[in-house]
């Protein structure tokens, strides 16, 4: 049962434009949602998170939006830069889960100069 | 500051051979520890997690095992590797709060395992 899904395996945008990465989930009991960024041959690094009681969290060029009724979240990157090219993973967690994250499949973002 | 080490970085092993991947964390004590695998074209799958020495929870039945002989050491093992064990293995840690919950995990550099 894939509880967190990223339906777009890849996304390509031009430098300076907005990148929108999407994530859907099925478990309404998730308490937090996170985005991780991963470069090839490296471990993922934490990017931004949002609590299930919020609908928006912003950190510099990165904004995460949560639509609980649709069980959907998105990551907006504005403006996109070539250094943002990486795989982005959406993840979700329940407070009662012992800190076990459930990850989506990842989306490869390519920002073209 | 905290750091997490994994070795080796890459490994090529024949089918049926044993496996031992090691992960150590520095700069923190009593962390939660995790082993993940990323198969080609797939997301991150949690394999094992540990909340303390000798305490291991398995998430996915398989021919892999994990051990935590010391507070900041986490080992992933197999007695006989299968072709399907190929992938990118990641160790991670998180702070263990009094509430028992911490959602941010910090990942190591990973080990690329190829079983031939």
What is this structure's SSE topology?
The complex is a heterodimer of chains A (113) and B (116).
Chain A (H helix, E strand, L loop, with lengths): L3 E2 L4 E5 L4 E7 L6 E7 L6 E7 L4 E4 L2 E6 L4 E6 L8 E8 L8 E2 L3 E6 L1
Parallel strand pairs in A: 2-11
Antiparallel strand pairs in A: 1-3, 3-8, 4-5, 4-9, 6-7, 7-8, 9-10, 9-11
Chain B lengths: L2 E5 L2 E4 L5 E8 L5 E7 L5 E9 L2 E4 L5 E7 L2 E6 L8 E8 L11 E2 L3 E5 L1
Parallel strand pairs in B: 2-11
Antiparallel strand pairs in B: 1-3, 3-8, 4-5, 4-9, 5-6, 7-8, 9-10, 9-11
Q: Describe it for me?
A:
The complex is a heterodimer of chains A (113) and B (116). With 113 residues, chain A is mainly beta. Helix content of chain A is 0%, strand content 53%. In chain A, strands 2, 4, 5, 9, 10 and 11 form a six-stranded mixed sheet that branches. Chain A has a five-stranded antiparallel sheet with strand order 1-3-8-7-6, with no helix packed on it. In chain A, a hairpin with an 8-residue loop joins strand 9 (86-93) and strand 10 (102-103). The radius of gyration of chain A is 13 Å and the shape is globular. Chain A starts with a strand and ends with a strand. The mean pLDDT of chain A is 93. Chain B has 116 residues and is mainly beta. Helix content of chain B is 0%, strand content 56%. Chain B contains no helices and eleven strands. In chain B, a hairpin with a 2-residue loop joins strand 5 (44-52) and strand 6 (55-58). The radius of gyration of chain B is 14 Å and the shape is globular.
């Amino acid at each position: 049962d894939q509880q967190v899904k990223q339906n777009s395996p890849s996304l390509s945008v031009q430098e300076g434009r907005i990148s929108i990465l999407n994530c859907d989930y099925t478990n309404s009991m998730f308490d937090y949602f996170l985005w991780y960024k991963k470069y090839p041959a490296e471990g993922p690094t934490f990017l931004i998170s949002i609590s299930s009681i919020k609908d928006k969290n912003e950190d510099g060029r990165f904004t995460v939006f949560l639509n609980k009724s649709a069980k959907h979240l998105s990551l907006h990157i504005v403006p996109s830069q070539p250094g943002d090219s990486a795989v982005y993973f959406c993840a979700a967690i329940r407070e009662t889960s012992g800190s076990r994250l459930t990850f989506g499949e990842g989306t490869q973002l390519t920002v073209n100069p | 500051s905290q750091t997490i080490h994994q070795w080796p970085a890459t490994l090529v092993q024949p089918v049926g051979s044993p496996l031992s991947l090691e992960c150590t964390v520095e700069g923190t004590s009593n962390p939660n520890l995790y082993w993940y695998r990323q198969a080609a074209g797939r997301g991150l799958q949690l394999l094992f997690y540990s909340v303390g020495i000798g305490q291991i929870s398995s998430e996915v039945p398989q021919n892999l095992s994990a051990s935590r002989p010391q507070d900041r050491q986490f080992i992933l093992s197999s007695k006989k590797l299968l072709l399907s064990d190929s992938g990118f293995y990641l160790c991670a840690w998180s702070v263990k709060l009094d509430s028992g919950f911490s959602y941010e995990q910090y990942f190591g550099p990973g080990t690329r395992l190829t079983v031939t």
